[in-house]
Amino acid sequence: MKYKILIVGMVLLFGLSSVWAQSEPEESDSVVIDSAELFPAPVSDIKLSDKPNDHGHAVVVTWEPSADDGGGKNNVVQYEIYWSTSFDGPFDTAGVVPSGTREFEHVGSKDPDDPKYIPDNTDLFYQIDVVTADPLIRTTSGTEGPVQCSGQWYNTGRTPVLIAVLIFGLLTAVFVTSARKGRKLYVRPIGGIEAVDDAIGRATEMGRPILYVLGLGSAADVATIASFTILGRVAKRVAEYQTELIVPTYDPIVMSVAQEVVKSAYYDAGRPEDYKEDIVHFVTQSQFAYVAAVNGTMLRELPATNVYMGKFFAESLLLAETGSLAGSIQISGTDEIAQIPFFIVACDYTLIGEELYAASAYLGREPKLLGSLKAQDWAKAAVVILAIIGLIAANLGWDSFTNLFQVVD
Residue 311: left if φ>0, alpha if ψ -120 to 50, beta else—which one? Predict the structure, then answer.
């Protein structure tokens, strides 16, 4: 009996030891991963500065990219920049840039009611998040700042423009002063203007009127303003030669100005009694109705000379063709590039582009106009010469010369 009990006890002890051995954990073959390796390295060397040469409300943020940017263990996708007016936040999103970027311009609005408003002369703080392909796996830099932004009075990037303006202003002052002192300034002869006196003389000899068309521009258009000067010269010659002048107008304000110009010209010619109010008259403000009326005048009156100076559009060829049928000498000028070809083929003389502006100075001989025209000629010559030198310098790699003329907005 004792032996049976002993045998049973040994069996039970052996079974319990087996169960205990099975319950013990086995050694794991898995590698323990440091949670820090899941997150990318943060950016470093963050620098904040006010954006130069601007109206304010802008900050430039620069940094050294994350060590995991471009070949690290973690796939850095982008950088997210946040800003706040407090060191402790809360922080708002300033912008997002792709990986590999080292700079970000945080440009805000000047309107305080705009959500993108950035205050000037206020401490600003920034943080940069390094974001991986999984947006939840990111690293935030420390808070950097403060920095303040403000507007500048002078844009140093536009210094070449300032120098050019000063030089042109000096040239203008020199030539205007010379013209006022009576010095004769040479201006290249313009064929269309040289022909005006001959055309007026022809009209006088034929006993037929001169038709002057100011175009469809308003009194605020530069081309119309230049045309007023030419009209004054033509009206003065007409008054001297006692020839008839017809000036149909499209705009009521242009009509009023033209009437004063013609009246002054007749007074300057010493024949105020020959001036009539209906020399300058209003027709209509409907484009093609105006053209029809002017064409009718051409065919009825058969003017010896037609002068078209000012702003012209689709009606240019209609006027010029009708004048050609009437047998008139035609002198035209406009700054509308699309209409210049029509005037060239249908008129005897055409002022191309800025020749219309030069004509006002050429005819009027006003010192201010003549001096500015001469200064423009010198400035154009300088631009052409510098452009040629710049082309040579760019091809030869003389960056020091080309950089002198670089303009930064």
Answer: beta
Confirm whether 8 is domain-assigned.
no
**Are residues 381 and 314 both part of a single domain?**
no
28 inside domain? no
**Sheet-wide strand order for 329-334:** 280-282, 245-249, 210-215, 305-311, 329-334, 349-352
The CATH number for 232's domain is: 3.40.50
Task: Output the six-digit token pair for 118.
Answer: 């950035």
Tens of pLDDT, residue by residue over 65-113, are 988 887 656 788 899 999 999 998 899 999 999 988 999 999 998 898 9
In angstroms, rounded to a whole number, what is the distance separating the alpha carbons of residues 207 and 242?
10
| Same domain, residue pair 263 and 379 | no
Query: What is 116-129 written as a DSSP string?
Result: TB--SSS-EEEEEE
Q: Which CATH number goes with the domain that contains 54?
A: 2.60.40.10
Residue 199 CB neighbour total at 10 angstroms: 23
Beta bridge partners of 96: 80
| Domain tally, the chain | 3
What the block records as the tokens of 283 is 């027709």
Q: Are residues 348 and 240 in the same domain?
A: yes
Q: Tens digit of pLDDT for each residue in 153-197?
A: 888 888 889 999 999 999 999 988 988 888 888 777 778 888 888
What are the E-state strand segments in 122-197? 124-132, 138-140, 144-147
Distance (Å, whole) CA 331 – CA 229: 15
3 state SS of 289: helix
Same structural domain, 253 and 340: yes
Across the strands, what pairs with 332? 308, 350
Range of the domain at 48: 36-147
198 three-class SS: helix
C-alpha distance across the termini of the chain, in Å: 110
Q: Specify if 227 maps to a domain.
A: yes
